[in-house]
Each structure stands twice: as structure tokens, then as C-alpha cells.
Amino acid sequence: MQRRAGAILSGAALIAGLIPAAPLLAQDSPQGAIVIPDNVTIFTNDNPNVRRATAVVNGAVITGTDVAQRLALILAANQGKISDEEKDRLRLQVLRNLIDETLQIQEAKASDIDISQDEIDQSYARVASQNFNQNIEAMNAYLTRIGSSADSLKRQIKGELAWQRLLQRNVSPFINVSADEVKEMLDRLKAAKGTDEYRLGEIYLAAPAEAQEQVHANALQIVDQLRKGGSFVAYARQYSQASTAAVGGDLGWIRLGQLPAELATAAREMQPGQLVGPIPIPGGFSILYLIDKRQVLTADPRDAVLALKQISVDFPAGTSEAVASAKAKTFAETIKTAKGCGDVDRVAASIGASVVANDQVRARDLPGPLQNAVLTLSIGETSPPFGSISEGVRMLMLCGRDDAQTDEGPSFDELMAQMEDDRVNKRAQAYLRDLRRDAVIEYN
């Protein structure tokens, strides 16, 4: 499984206040009411152009503003629904991530790896477009509005690019996966045909022996926030110290044999949408979220593409529940008299119902209860009625179905790449531990 400590960002200057050197007097002077004596004595060393450090990492300053701007991204992702206590924990985690990011950027620079501003700007533009569906100007305004900044996010991008480039140079060339190893894994995959495969999200928190209790407490707080509706992807990006942090903790499709025994045991009992953790594992704790589940090298019925017609009728404002139930029953009985998809429009029109068609609906994209109902239909049959008083009653008629094809699994080259990536990321974790161990870090 891929693990690498995540990276974070940069920031702006804190502006210190100035202490006036003399009282303000209402006199005639070039400054009006402001009178400044000829012999000025500065009573403090406050300089508005000097940033106050939260930490200094090998001489590089991390400020409170840097931390605040990164924290703002997390708060925005969770609509601000985070307690003051949780914010304090988040600040500490963000600082740790900033320290790791600084170490990664410094190590890349020492290895003569340069990340150009053009590369950073291009990646920033992609993030704005793909993740936020905004242009650069709108993205800049959004970040400012939530208390973050473009510079902050660009610093995170620089850290990620620098670390990736560093690993490509100093780690990847020394990782070897033999053809025999890949062949053995392919054979094991084929032997596992029909067994369950899991798509998991993970938040991994490293926990040295002396910090086990504190990290466990932090993990419990994260789980609590996630259960209250927090964004798993946002928390994974900011908290997780696995390499998958950059993709919101998504491990992709894996089999239980690929997981540490502790995680495999937990995942086996999980259902899609379920959150479990923190789970103690060697080196730290993991929080798991089961995104989906399927069977290895077996077609999943939920991947079928359906042609559907939706028939619906609205309820007038003020309709009572009893009247709505009676109308829904009559509606369902009438629609069931339609002789297939070619006849349903006529029948719907006779009772004032509307019909819309879509022939590219993936069964997987339907709500859970409807998935099972629709997948058992034959062509021309309808689902049970569903809806509400405010939205009206609806039924789905199945007009066609393209069943999912059997998954042939990864190719030889794809599997080799996956195995190489796994080994690179394990080596990367050790690499970052060495950087932390040798770093000179001063805290404010």
C-alpha cells in the first residue's frame, strides 16, 4: 500500500502594529494633528516587514499566516463546521505538514531540482478548472474570500512537484520488480477470481512510540468530524501522511491480501459508505472509508448501462399525505397498464404525467434502494413508485440494458507499475523520516 508523508504550503507576512512615539496633538503642522518630534526614539523592534515565525526549518521561516491560510482551506471544505478544539488540533497538523513540505523542497533544491514558476502556474490552473470548476481569476477571489491565498496553494503544488521529482531521481531508479514477481501476482489475481475487491479511502497518521496517545486522540477527533459530515477527501489531503493524500486518500481497487492484516480484518466487515477507525497498525493509525465493493475479475451488474424512461406527476401545493398516497397508488396502477416503452407516453399523457428518457444511465449512479429494484426489471417493466409530497411521485421504466463486461484485470505492465509505485512510496516514507531526523527546527 502506498505511503508517503503529505506536503503543504506557504503564506504571506504578518503585519505588526506600530507604537506611536508621541501623543497626538491638535496643532498646525505639515502632518496636521499628527505631531512627530525631531528626536525620535523607537521603543520596540517591531517591523511590519518581518514575519513572525511559528517554526524555522533549517533557516526557512514558517509563519502563523502560512498555517492560517492552509487551515482556511480545510474549514472551507467542511463549511466551517469545526469546533474550536478541532481547529487547534488542525493547526498543529498543518504545521507538521508545512515542516515536511519545507524539508522536501529543501532536499529537492539541494539535489539541483528546480520547479519552474510556469509548471506551478499550469498545475494551479488545472486545479482551478478540474477541482473547483473555476477560471484562475475566480479561483484567486475564492481563496481570498475564505482567508487563504493563491500563493498558499501554489506553495503546496510546488512541494508536491518537488517531492515527486526528487523520488523519480533518487529512489525510482533503484527500485526493481522482476518479471517473475509480476507473473506470480497475476496468477494470484486469477486464482482470486470472484473474491471481493474493495475501493477504500484511507487517512494514515504516523505515530512514533512517544506520541501514540496524542496521535490516537487526534484520530478520534478526525473520525468525530467525519461522522458529523466532514469531507473525507479534505481531511485526507490535509491530515493523511500516506502518498494517497494528494488524491483524497483514495487507495483505488485493492484486495484484502494487499492490506496490512489489521486493515484487512476491518475492511472485510465494512459496507459501502461506512467509516471505521482509528485502527492501530505498525507505525501509526489508519481511518478507513469504504467507497465501493466488487468481485475480482467478475462483471459487476451495477456497471450496466440502462435506457430508462422516468414518468412523474406533481402534487398541488397543500396536498395532504393521505391524498398524496391515494394519488400515487392510482398513478402506479395506471402506468403499469402501459404496454412497454412505446406505449408509456400515451398512458402518461392520459393522466397528465410527464415523461423524460435517458439511455445512458449507469446503474451504479442510481440511489442504493433503486439500484436493486431497477436491476431486477425486464424490458418494459416499471420500478415501484417513489418520491415525496414536495417533489411528486415518479416511476422508472426499463427500455434497454447493456450489461457490464467482465473485468480482465490489470495487464502485465500495469501491474508492474503498481508494484513499483508501492515500493517507491515505502522508500519515500523512510526518506522523509531521515530528513526529519537530520533537520534543525526551532519553534516559536
UniProtKB/TrEMBL annotation:
<dbReference type="InterPro" id="IPR000297">
    <property type="entry name" value="PPIase_PpiC"/>
</dbReference>
<dbReference type="InterPro" id="IPR027304">
    <property type="entry name" value="Trigger_fact/SurA_dom_sf"/>
</dbReference>
<dbReference type="InterPro" id="IPR015391">
    <property type="entry name" value="SurA_N"/>
</dbReference>
<keyword id="KW-0413">Isomerase</keyword>
<keyword id="KW-0732">Signal</keyword>
<keyword id="KW-0574">Periplasm</keyword>
<dbReference type="Pfam" id="PF09312">
    <property type="entry name" value="SurA_N"/>
</dbReference>
<feature type="signal peptide">
    <location>
        <begin position="1"/>
        <end position="26"/>
    </location>
</feature>
<dbReference type="InterPro" id="IPR046357">
    <property type="entry name" value="PPIase_dom_sf"/>
</dbReference>
<dbReference type="GO" id="GO:0003755">
    <property type="term" value="F:peptidyl-prolyl cis-trans isomerase activity"/>
</dbReference>
<keyword id="KW-0697">Rotamase</keyword>
<dbReference type="Pfam" id="PF00639">
    <property type="entry name" value="Rotamase"/>
</dbReference>
<dbReference type="InterPro" id="IPR050280">
    <property type="entry name" value="OMP_Chaperone_SurA"/>
</dbReference>
<protein>
    <recommendedName>
        <fullName>Parvulin-like PPIase</fullName>
    </recommendedName>
</protein>
<keyword id="KW-0143">Chaperone</keyword>
<feature type="domain" description="PpiC">
    <location>
        <begin position="195"/>
        <end position="292"/>
    </location>
</feature>
